[in-house]
C-alpha cells in the first residue's frame, strides 16, 4: 500500500514531455543564495526537470521521488543520483546539503515532517527553496476556456492540496528566515497540440476520467481550437511563486 498520492506514475512519459521547463534564471538565482555548491537535493523530483539544471551549478545532486515509475522516466545526468524515497525521510547526512529544493511538489508533502528533515540536512547557511505555478497565460479567450475546464468541469476532482498551489504557497510558514526572491516566470512557444498534451497531465483530469469514464478535455477542445485561431504556435507564460528561506549560519539547530 502506497503512503503517498501517486497521481502521475501512469503517464510518466507525457509528464516529462508536456510540462513546462523552468528558466535558467531561477537556478542562477538559487545558486547565488548559497556560498558553497557541493550538494543540492531535489525533493519530489518527478522527471528530474529541476535536478538536471541544478547539476550545472552544483558538484552533486541527489534527486528523490516516491514514485519509481517517475524516476525510471527521469532525465539521466552524470552528476545526478536518483533515489526512491519520501520527502519526509531524506537520504542525506545531517548538515550536508547546500540547497534543498522542491519544484511544484511541496503541496504533496507532510509539511512539519519535511521541515524537520530540512533542518536536519541543511548546512548552516543552507537554503530551502520551494516554488510552484498555477494557470497558463496565453490569451483572454484561451485562458477563459482553460479556466472553465479547471474550475467548472474539474473543480471537484482536484486534490485539496491544490489550493496551496493556487495561493502560491503564501499561507505556508517557512521554517527559517525568508529571503527576498525576484519575479521570474516560465515562458514557452507551444502548439495547440502541446497545450492539450499539457492539460492531459492534470491530476484532476485523470481522476475525473477514472470516476466518470468521461474526458472533459474532449468537451472543451472545440472552444480551445476556435480560440487558438490560425497561429501554429503561441506564447505561453506561467508566473512562478518562489519561497526561499535560509538556515541560520549559527551551528545551533532550529529544531522545529
Q: How does this structure look, described?
A:
With 256 residues, this protein is of the alpha/beta class. It is built from ten helices and nine strands. The strands form two sheets. The chain has a seven-stranded mixed sheet. A two-stranded antiparallel ribbon has the order 7-8. The chain has a domain at 9-137 and 161-187 and 238-246: Vaccinia Virus protein VP39 (Rossmann fold), CATH 3.40.50.150. Mean pLDDT is 91; it is low at 1-10. 33% of the residues are buried.
Number of strands: 9
CATH superfamily of the domain at 9-137 and 161-187 and 238-246: Vaccinia Virus protein VP39
What is the strand content?
Answer: 15-25%
| Low-pLDDT windows of residues | 1-10
Radius of gyration, taken over Cα atoms and rounded to an integer in Å: 19 Å
> What is the mean predicted local confidence, pLDDT?
91
Provide the CATH top-level class of the domain at 9-137 and 161-187 and 238-246. Answer: Alpha Beta
Number of helices: 10
Q: State the major sheet.
A: 7 strands, mixed
Helix-strand string: HHEHEHEEHEHHEEHHHEE
Query: Can you tell me the CATH architecture of the domain at 9-137 and 161-187 and 238-246?
Result: 3-Layer(aba) Sandwich
Annotated CATH topology of the domain at 9-137 and 161-187 and 238-246: Rossmann fold
- Structural class of the helix and strand makeup? alpha/beta
Taking the alpha carbons of the first and last residues, their distance comes to 29 Å
Helix content: 25-40%
The rough form would be described as: elongated
Amino acid at each position: 500500500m502506497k503512503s503517498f498520492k501517486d497521481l502521475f506514475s501512469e503517464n510518466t512519459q507525457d509528464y516529462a514531455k508536456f510540462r513546462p521547463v523552468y528558466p535558467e534564471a531561477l537556478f542562477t538565482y538559487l545558486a547565488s543564495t548559497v556560498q558553497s555548491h557541493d550538494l543540492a537535493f531535489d525533493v519530489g523530483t518527478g522527471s528530474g526537470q529541476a535536478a538536471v539544471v541544478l547539476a550545472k551549478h552544483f558538484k552533486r545532486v541527489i534527486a528523490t521521488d516516491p514514485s519509481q515509475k517517475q524516476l525510471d522516466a527521469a532525465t539521466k545526468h552524470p552528476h545526478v543520483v536518483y533515489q526512491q524515497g519520501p520527502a519526509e525521510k531524506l537520504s542525506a547526512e545531517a548538515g550536508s546539503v547546500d540547497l534543498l529544493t522542491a519544484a511544484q511538489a511541496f503541496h504533496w508533502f507532510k509539511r512539519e515532517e519535511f521541515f524537520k528533515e530540512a533542518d536536519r540536512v541543511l548546512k548552516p547557511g543552507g537554503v530551502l527553496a520551494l516554488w510552484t505555478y498555477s494557470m497558463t497565460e496565453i490569451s483572454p479567450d484561451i485562458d477563459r476556456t482553460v479556466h472553465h475546464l479547471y474550475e467548472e468541469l474539474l473543480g471537484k476532482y482536484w486534490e485539496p492540496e491544490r489550493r496551496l498551489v493556487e495561493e502560491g504557497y503564501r499561507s505556508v510558514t517557512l521554517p527559517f528566515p525568508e529571503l527576498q526572491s525576484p519575479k521570474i516566470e516560465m515562458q514557452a512557444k507551444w502548439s495547440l497540440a502541446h497545450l492539450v498534451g499539457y492539460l492531459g497531465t492534470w491530476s484532476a483530469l485523470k481522476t475525473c476520467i477514472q470516476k466518470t469514464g468521461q474526458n472533459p478535455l474532449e468537451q472543451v477542445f472545440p472552444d480551445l481550437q476556435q480560440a487558438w485561431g490560425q497561429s501554429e504556435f503561441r506564447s505561453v507564460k506561467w508566473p512562478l511563486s518562489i519561497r526561499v528561506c535560509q538556515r541560520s549560519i549559527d551551528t545551533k539547530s532550529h529544531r522545529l
